[in-house]
Specification:
153 residues, alpha+beta, Thiol Ester Dehydrase, Chain A, seven-stranded antiparallel sheet, globular, HotDog_dom_sf
Length: 153
Amino acid sequence: MPAAETPDAPGSDPATPPEDPAGAGWEIVADRGFVDLVGPLYRRPRDGAYAFAAAAKHANLIGVVQGGMMMTFADRALGVTAMAAAEGANCVTIEMQMHFIGVGRIGDWIVAHPRVTQRTGSLVFMRAEVTAGDRLVATATGIWKILRRKPAA
């Protein structure tokens, strides 16, 4: 694949949010649902990475990023990537596991690098590394069910 399309390696992003996410290649992920309450989330089209700027609203009782926020973030990044792998068909999470290896700190630029590990006719198997700079914060794996498209009205 050409150098411009080469995915960035997990851990190659800055530890703090870019001053201008759009200028750094990030687009805001539009969402009118639950994720809008915890966002904004960003997507980098060139490699399919997702990110968010860890803010005070994401903190748990000990002042680091709440595990539920990390799971919400991973679920969205993996789920949208699964839908792309399913040619745009809707997908739903069947199972997701998250291993918390480190902590996300308030002020961190948290990045997920989702990838498809296998796809069948009805399932998409996914994996992601979640980093803050060069620190591995978590890994996530999961299975997404590909739903049948509804007929056009």
